[in-house]
Design brief:
The chain is of the alpha+beta class. The protein has 17 helices and 34 strands.
C-alpha cells in the first residue's frame, strides 16, 4: 500500500468515526446527538427562569459547536418542538404544514423544569475540552430516562444510519416502573401528529410499521383527512393526492387545505364516486399510508450498537437506580460536610476557642491554638479537624459570634440529621424511591398534555392491483408498430391499470411480458396482446403452426405460457430454420390444408382438429402434420370436440387471424 493510500485510508477512517460519533448517531446514555447536548448545556448555563432569544442561545452554543449557526438553530427548533425539555415562545414552525420557524432573532425559548429534573447534575457529569480548548462541555448527561426512545431520532452517517421512532413519554415511564418491579411491558410508537399505526412487524423497534392518516368519511361525497402519517406534511399529502388523480387512480373534483393548528384537508369527490369506494385507493396510491423501516442504532460505550427498544429501556431503568444512588450519596456527603461545619461552629463559639487566639502574634500560633482547643472535643467531630476547617472558622465575623444562637444551631443540626436518616432509608429502598421518582416525573409531564395521540390498529392488506381502476386503454397502431395507453391512433387492445402486466407475441413468434406500456415498439403485424396474470393465462391454450423453411414441413404445437421473466424475450418456435405460420387461441378448431396439385397426388385436402393434440410445455417441439407442399390453410371454429365414432362436428364461421 502506497503512502498516499495510507493517508487516504487513515483520513477516511477518522472522518467516518467523527461523523458517526460526533454528528449523526445519538449516545445511549443521554439519547442526544452532540449538537443537542451542546444546546442543552448552553441553556443550563444561561438559565435564569426567563426567556432567551434563540439567536443568543445559538451564539452561546457556538462556543462549543465546531459547525455553523444554522445547524445549531435547526437542531434547537427541532428539540423545542418535542415539548419535553424546552419551552417555546414565538413561531417555531408547523410540522403539520411543513412551515419553517421564524428567524432566530424573533423567537425565544427557556428550559422547562423537567429538563433539570432528568438531565442536570454538574457534579455527576463528565466534562471534556471543547473543540478549541477554551471551554468545557459535557461528554454526556446523567439522563434518568431514555430520551432517545421518547423523542426518536433519525441520522445518516458513513456506512450506517439510525432510525428510532418516538414513543409516548408517560408509557415509557410506566414501562420503566414495570421493569423495576419485574413486570412485563410492551412499547409501541406514538407520533405527535396522531394517525393510525400497525405494529405487527415492529419487532421491538428492529422491523417496520405502517402508518395511516385518519380519514373522516361521514359525508359520502367528501373525505376529510384529520390526522397525517408521521413525516408527511399537508403540502406533501395534497401533492400525492393530486398526482394520483392525474394518473387516473382517483376520481376527485377538488382538494382544499384548511390546516392550521389541526389537520383539515378536504377532498371533494367526482360524480358517481363515493367515499367508501375511494378510501382503499387513498391508502394504496397516496401518502395516506406509509411504511417506515426502523433501525435502532446508538453509541454504547463508544461503539455503534443496534439495540431493541426494550434493551434500551432496560438499560435506562437500571441506570436510573445507579444515578439516583449516586445523587443520594452526593447529597449525603454535602449534608455531612454541613453537619461537620455546624458542629465546629458550635464548639468554636460555645467553648470560646476563639478566645485562645487573641494574644497570638503569628498565623502558625493561631492555627496551633485552634487545633489545641478542639482536642478535648475530638469525639464530637464527624472527622478530624483539617486546615481548611480552621481557615473557615477564622473567617467567621465577630458579629456572628456575638449573635450566635445555640438553639438555632442545634435545630439546624437536627434537621440535617433527619435528612441524613431519610437518605439512608432511600438508599436502603432504592427501587421504591425510583418508583416514587418516576411518579413525580409523570406528574410534571401531565396526563392530558402527553396522552397517546396515535391509535394502534391492525391493517388489512390492500392489493393495489385490485383497487386500481382499469381505465387506461392500450391501443396498437399497426402502421408504425407502437403499442400502449399513450398511443393515440390504432385499434383498442385492452383496458388496464398501471400495475397490470401484458403478454405480447410478435409476428416472428417471439413473446415477452412487460408492465402495461405507455408507448412500446412491438413491430408491425403483432399477433397477440393480453393480460399476463397467471389466472388469465391458465385459461388460454396457444396453438402454434410453424413451418420448416427448407422442406416446407408444417408443425402443430399446443402450449400454455405460464412462467416467464419480466422483459425477457422467448420464442414459440424452435431455434433454427423455422418460421411462424399461424397462431390461434381458440380451444378447438378445424384446420383445413389444401395441397398443391402434383402427379400421382390423390388427396388434395386434409382436415386436422386441435383437440386431437396434447397441450405441452411452451419449449416442447410441435408435431409434424404436413410434409407436402401447401397451397392454403383455413381455420374454422369447432363447437365441440370430435371423438371417435361421433358425427361430423358442427363448424362455425372462419376464424379471422
Amino acid at each position: 500500500m502506497t503512502q498516499a493510500q495510507n493517508v487516504f485510508r487513515q483520513n477516511f477512517l477518522e472522518y467516518a468515526s467523527y461523523v458517526i460519533k460526533e454528528r449523526a448517531i445519538p449516545d445511549l446514555s443521554d439519547g442526544l446527538k452532540p449538537v443537542q447536548r451542546r444546546i442543552m448545556h448552553t441553556l443550563f448555563e444561561m438559565d435564569d427562569g426567563k426567556f432567551h432569544k434563540v439567536a443568543n442561545v445559538v451564539g452561546w452554543a457556538m462556543r462549543y459547536h465546531p459547525h455553523g449557526d444554522s445547524s445549531i438553530y435547526e437542531a434547537l427548533v427541532n428539540l423545542a418542538n418535542f415539548d419535553l425539555f424546552i419551552e417555546r415562545q414565538g413561531n417555531f414552525g408547523n410540522f403539520m404544514t411543513g412551515d419553517s420557524a421564524a428567524a432566530a432573532r424573533y423567537i425565544e425559548c427557556r428550559l422547562l423544569p423537567f429538563a433539570k429534573k432528568v438531565l442536570y447534575n454538574p457534579e455527576l457529569t463528565e466534562f471534556t475540552d471543547s473543540y478549541d480548548g477554551r471551554n468545557s462541555e459535557p461528554v454526556s448527561f446523567p439522563a434518568k430516562i431514555p430520551v432517545v426512545i421518547i423523542q426518536g431520532v433519525m441520522g445518516i452517517a458513513v456506512g450506517m444510519s439510525t432510525s428510532i421512532l418516538p414513543h409516548n413519554a408517560l408509557e415509557v415511564l410506566d414501562a420503566m416502573a414495570a421493569k423495576l418491579k419485574g413486570e412485563s411491558y410492551t412499547l409501541y410508537p406514538d407520533f405527535p401528529g396522531g394517525g393510525i399505526v400497525d405494529v405487527e412487524d415492529y419487532k421491538d423497534g428492529r422491523g417496520s410499521v405502517s402508518i395511516r392518516a385518519k380519514l373522516n368519511t361521514s359525508d359520502s361525497k367528501k373525505i376529510i383527512i384529520e390526522e397525517l402519517p408521521f413525516g408527511v406534511t399537508s403540502e406533501a399529502m395534497i401533492h400525492s393526492v393530486e398526482d394520483a388523480a392525474k394518473k387516473g387512480r382517483l376520481k376527485i373534483s377538488s382538494i382544499n387545505d384548511y390546516t392550521s393548528d389541526r389537520v383539515n384537508i378536504e377532498i371533494n369527490l367526482a360524480r358517481n364516486s363515493y367515499s367508501e369506494d375511494i378510501v382503499d385507493s387513498l391508502y394504496a396510491f397516496t401518502d395516506c399510508e406509509k411504511k417506515i423501516s426502523v433501525n435502532p442504532l446508538v453509541i454504547r460505550e463508544n461503539i455503534p450498537t443496534i439495540m431493541g427498544i426494550s434493551e434500551i429501556l432496560d438499560y435506562h431503568a437500571l441506570n436510573l437506580l445507579d444515578i439516583l444512588k449516586a445523587e443520594l450519596e452526593l447529597e449525603k456527603g454535602h449534608l455531612l460536610d454541613k453537619l461537620h461545619a455546624r458542629t465546629l461552629e458550635r464548639i468554636f463559639v460555645e467553648e470560646r476557642i476563639y478566645k485562645r487566639i487573641e494574644q497570638k502574634k503569628s498565623a502558625a500560633e493561631v492555627n496551633k491554638a485552634v487545633f489545641t482547643g478542639f482536642k478535648p472535643f475530638t469525639e464530637q467531630l464527624l472527622r478530624p479537624l483539617a486546615d481548611e476547617d480552621v481557615e473557615r472558622l477564622l473567617k467567621i465575623p465577630i458579629r456572628r459570634i456575638s449573635l450566635f444562637d445555640i438553639e438555632k444551631n442545634r435545630h439546624e443540626m437536627d434537621e440535617i440529621n433527619a435528612l441524613l436518616e431519610e437518605i439512608e432509608y432511600k438508599l436502603g429502598h432504592l427501587v421504591e424511591y425510583a418508583l416514587t421518582y418516576l411518579g413525580e416525573l409523570k406528574g410534571m409531564l401531565g396526563a392530558e398534555e402527553h396522552k397517546r395521540k396515535t391509535k394502534i390498529k391492525a391493517f388489512e392488506t390492500i392489493d393495489v392491483k385490485e383497487v386500481a381502476e382499469r381505465n387506461l386503454v392500450i391501443k396498437y397502431d399497426n402502421s408504425n408498430g407502437y403499442l400502449g395507453y399513450g398511443v393515440k391512433t390504432g385499434t383498442n387492445q385492452l383496458e388496464v391499470n398501471p400495475f397490470d402486466r401484458v403478454l405480447i407475441i410478435r409476428k416472428d413468434g417471439t413473446y415477452y411480458v412487460i408492465d402495461a406500456p405507455e408507448k412500446e415498439f412491438v413491430g408491425k403485424g403483432m399477433l397477440y396482446c393480453g393480460f399476463a396474470d397467471k389466472s388469465e393465462l391458465e385459461k388460454i391454450v396457444f396453438t402454434v403452426l410453424y413451418q420448416e423453411k427448407k422442406y416446407k414441413y408444417l408443425f402443430l404445437k399446443r402450449c400454455q405460457i405460464l412462467s416467464f421473466m419480466l422483459k425477457k424475450a422467448y420464442s414459440l418456435v424452435p431455434e433454427g430454420n423455422f418460421k411462424l405460420v399461424k397462431l390461434s387461441t381458440h380451444p378447438n378448431a378445424e384446420l383445413t390444408v389444401k395441397y398443391k396439385p402434383k402427379p400421382n397426388l390423390r388427396i388434395l385436402e386434409e382436415q386436422f382438429y386441435f383437440s386431437d393434440y396434447l397441450v405441452k410445455g411452451v419449449r416442447a417441439n410441435g408435431v409434424r402434420i404436413v410434409v407436402k407442399d401447401i397451397a392454403s390453410l383455413r381455420l374454422r371454429a369447432v363447437k365441440e370436440i370430435v371423438h371417435e365414432n361421433q358425427e361430423e362436428p358442427t363448424l362455425f364461421d372462419d376464424i379471422e387471424e
